[in-house]
Design brief:
mainly alpha, Arc Repressor Mutant, subunit A, Four Helix Bundle (Hemerythrin (Met), subunit A), 2 domains, 9 helices, 69% helix, globular
Length: 224
Amino acid sequence: MEVIKQSETLADQAYALLKRSIVNGELKDEQTLPEETISKELGISRTPLRDALNRLASEGLIIQKKGRPAIVAGFTREKSLEYMEIRSVLEIHSLTKVVAKADSEFIRNLRNNLSEQLVAIEKNNFQEFIELDREFHILLASRNSNEELKDMIERMNTGVNRAFLILSSTIPKSAKGAYEEHVEIVDAIEQKDIRLAENKMIVHMNNVEKRFLNYYSNSPSNKI
């Protein structure tokens, strides 16, 4: 892991670094996070580290137990499907609220993300694609004025993102399909067609679940 930069808030930076390490799989499911070891690696005291761990626990990324080191949370098939169901409800609702607010800058940012997705697919960099997918969905919600809803969408996407990363060896065969669905969503937003955008998002969310179930059925274990 990287060393903390003193110019930034220590707790915030520790949170960001640990979250990234968990999401990208550097820190594995059920891996322990001893405070003394982690604080030394990051170059900070335990106080800001504990703040960071508390935030990660509130997002469901780690599990804290009294008198024991925190551990990285595991994701079962059932838990991942729960995340997807909540994510679908939130994102479809949010999309209907932001279409009318879509301006040229918003569309440009979405198109830039789509371009990066395509590059990642062409380079067979599917870990990068999954992260860009997460960023795409968070960006879609960014014009919603409901901060709590945006935070929930980010949390749900982070959990689903981890699930897909762990099964990433099966991603190549459907990444292009996901990308094309993203394009159709943005096209509908640019047309300011709320109903079409909503329908495209529903199709995309249904396909995300189908892909996951397909990945999971081909996984050698019952846990992701």
